[in-house]
Design a protein that fits this description.
With about 575 residues, the chain is of the alpha+beta class. It contains 20 helices and 13 strands. The N and C termini lie far apart (about 65 Å). This is TBC1 domain family member 24.
Length: about 575
């Protein structure tokens, strides 16, 4: 067989159509953009030897740290290791977190080789503390390697990637945990129906999302996984997020068809995880590899820069909570304890539903009541006094008509002072508004739902000052303060986007006589200085319908902060 050189570890009887090589026999291309197009189209998908050669070529172009172990290092080490031990005597390192090697289409005896490669990697990369995806990547690359030494070199180069802002595999618990939080954030934004299903059926959505990498790298059948690997080696880590979001979309569709519109009952998160795993393992019966890729790349996600920034923000949040090594994260429901939570506006269940919309890095926090008109009176000045210094905050309003609405506000109210006496908008695209009736619904930044309204800015472009259009015709917006060295730029800051209109970035504003949420052709919420009268309407920033009656009287107003639930 022509593929024997690159398939000595493969059980060809399991390869199906992939065992019959056809199509092109070489790739005459060195342009990365062209490679990207070819990978997505499956240019080398029907030729095992060509795919192996392309993988080798792509991985050898990865920028790596100066000293990166290669095939010769492996041969030197294993040459002194003596006779190979049976695989049962070669346990995988602890940092794979108990994940077994997925066999895919490997021969049974290839497990020994894979275990030896991974253990050799562990010896050469002592800084790896948590890398649960390594068995899957090693297994996949072994299908396309001439020998163990070459597979070791390919894996080592992936791990040693040192390109700024780029990662290929999580290698610490902190990185892995933040990636799970990041996936949760992306699920909320790009698969709201799927996220709603998970929140409704699982006791802990965060626990379900810890499997997101497993869905792609362990649970997909080989025919699908190898097509994912094609594009992953060209485009990097972001591809894994795309594929996992696509799988969540297909799972939601599957459940909707199976239930026939009937509601789902909450159940143990472990059962939901097992159900998703079973669906993905059998996905070949309903979804082709091409259909999976088409769905994944039809999602108009943020740039790699924005996703990297979100992951760094989540990492920073975890570091501030003391999470740097492997440790169990508290269940999200513990952060919102129904036995101790008390609000005069929403129930514990309603607050938990609101909690499911907020960025994942705050899911470890518990709600902390900062201000309520029932205790602190109807004074905007006292509102500012109690809310300043807290970021983010959650605003809840109950009207005299019984309507309940509110907003998640990403930025400290102190920022309003930077505009002087002029009403200036500030905040980031993580702000959103919501209403509880006629059904619970939240409205995010319009750019999330309509990316065509903006494109990623060049890194050196300057941020436009926020505008107060609709209140003053002058450009009297808030200038972004300079960030201290090492400080993170906020995720979804308007500085990262070329916005077609300032009306789409008017998140929150306040001065001595009012607070406003949402702007551009109206305001989502306007509250007067006595916290007594308000107006609700459509606005361009959130593209929302009126959250309640267009003119209303406030019966009760509460503001909640986010208190670290992991603090001792």
């Amino acid at each position: 067989m022509a593929e024997e050189e690159y398939g000595s570890f493969v059980d060809w009887n399991q390869m199906g159509d992939l065992a019959k090589s056809s199509g092109p026999t070489k790739v005459d291309c060195k342009d990365l953009k062209e490679f990207k197009k070819m990978a997505r189209q499956g240019y080398w998908a029907k030729n095992h030897k060509l795919r192996a050669q392309v993988y080798e070529q792509l991985i050898k172009t990865i920028p790596c740290r100066t000293v990166t172990p290669d095939a010769e290092v492996y041969r030197d080490i294993m040459g002194n290791a003596g006779t190979k031990k049976p695989s049962s005597n070669i346990p995988l390192p602890e940092f794979v977190d108990g994940n077994a090697l997925p066999l895919y289409c490997l021969k049974a005896e290839a497990v020994t080789s894979a275990h030896q490669i991974i253990n050799c990697v562990a010896g050469q990369f002592p800084d790896i503390s948590h890398c649960p995806s390594l068995p899957a990547i090693t297994s996949m690359l072994l299908h396309f390697s001439k020998d163990e030494a070459q597979c070791f070199e390919l894996v080592s180069r992936i791990l040693a990637c040192n390109e700024p802002g780029k990662r290929l595999l999580d290698q610490t618990f902190l990185a892995f945990e933040s990636s799970c939080m990041t996936f949760g954030d992306l699920a909320i934004k790009y698969c709201p129906a799927g996220h709603k299903l998970i929140v409704a059926t699982a006791q802990d959505a965060l626990e379900v999302y810890t499997d997101w990498q497993r869905w792609v790298l362990f649970d997909l059948p080989f025919s699908h996984m190898v097509r994912v690997l094609d594009v992953y080696l060209v485009e990097g880590y972001k591809v894994l997020f795309r594929m996992a979001i696509a799988l969540l979309k297909f799972y939601r569709k599957h459940k909707a068809e199976a239930q026939g519109g009937e509601g789902s009952q909450p159940q143990d998160s472990g059962k939901v995880r097992a159900d998703i795993q079973a669906f993905i393992k059998d996905i070949a019966s309903t979804v082709t590899p091409e259909k999976l890729l088409e769905k994944a790349f039809s999602i108009r996600m943020f740039s790699r820069k924005e996703i990297t920034l979100l992951q760094l923000t989540n990492e920073k949040s975890l570091q501030q909570k003391g999470i740097t090594v492997k440790q169990k994260r508290r269940n999200v429901q513990l952060a919102l304890n129904p036995d101790t939570f008390s609000s005069e506006i929403v129930s514990a269940k309603e607050m938990r539903d609101i909690w499911s919309w907020i960025p994942e890095r705050f899911a470890l926090c518990q709600p902390q009541l900062l201000f309520t008109t029932s205790n602190h009176g109807c004074s905007l000045n006292r509102f500012y006094q109690h809310c300043e210094g807290y970021e983010p905050t959650l605003l809840l309003i109950r009207t005299t008509d019984g309507d309940v609405c509110g907003a998640f506000l990403s930025t400290d109210w102190q920022e309003r002072k930077r505009g002087g006496n002029k009403l200036s908008f500030f905040g980031t695209g993580e702000c959103f508004v919501f209403r509880m009736k006629p059904e619970m619904e939240h409205f995010e930044w319009v750019v999330i739902r309509h990316p065509e309204l903006a494109s990623s800015c060049n890194a050196q472009s300057q941020e436009e000052p926020a505008s107060s259009e609709g209140h003053n015709s002058e450009n009297n917006g808030l200038q972004q303060p300079e960030k201290p060295a090492g400080d993170l730029s906020p995720f979804l800051s308007t500085r990262h986007f070329n916005l077609t209109s300032k009306n789409t970035s008017m998140f929150m504003a306040g001065n001595f006589d009012s607070i406003i949420v949402g702007g551009g052709d109206g305001n989502a919420l306007y509250i007067d200085s006595e916290l007594n009268h308000g107006r609700a309407g459509r606005c361009a920033t959130f593209d929302n319908p009126p959250l309640c009656a267009e003119s209303f009287q406030v019966a009760l107003l509460e503001t909640w902060g986010f208190q670290d639930a992991m603090a001792s």
